[in-house]
Hints:
Layout: H1 26-31, H2 33-45, H3 53-69, H4 71-77, E1 79-87, E2 93-101, H5 104-123, E3 132-137, H6 143-150, E4 157-158, E5 164-170, E6 178-185, E7 189-196
Antiparallel strand pairs: 1-2, 3-7, 4-5, 5-6, 6-7
Helix pairs in contact: 2-5, 3-4
Amino acid sequence: MEHFVPKCLWEKGHRPDKTKTLPAHKDCNNAFSEDNEYFRDVIVMEEGAERHPEGQRVREGAIQRKLNERFGSIVKSLKNLRMRRVYTPTGIYLGNRPTFEVEWERFERVLCNVIKGVFYVARKQPLPRDFIISVSDIRTLDPEWVTRTVSFMVPWQSFGDSAFCCRYVVSSKKPIEKITCLMQFYENRLFLGEAVSPKVFGDDGDVFVPVRDGASILVPRWTAER
């Protein structure tokens, strides 16, 4: 049984009793363990995560232990660490801050697993294997499209605390054609993901949601259904 939301997001002894699992092949499950840890390290070291009590516990616990015992693994995660100019989403200059590059492919693998788990919990069946899954940092998406899509989603769901919360909408058609999921970690970072049946894609090539200028991450477009 796999914890589709990485259990390492919680410090030892603090994981909620309502944490959900789904059936998984043992070898496949083990293959994601390093990605899960990398995802946790990056998310919890991001500015703002320390304001969440569980994020702070993980910083003082698991991250501090890695710094003391496996410093090399922390250095490896901080890819191209250097000072860079930092701006708010509205363009206000915040000065130079220590920043590093994120290995997005590793994030994708973790978040795709989360979407599969949410679908399993919501529909009590595995996500069809031919579904096309894509995820994005919500800041790259068109805010009006996001607002409209989120309005169709169920209220926030959690395992008993707010270290991980999600909202989602599943198409009403049978067989199910798509699920869109909003995922939040430590009340700080938001991602939006979709899993779509191949038959949803049309021939016009217009299969992506609107994104902000300069964004490079796209997700399949579909109209949310109640």
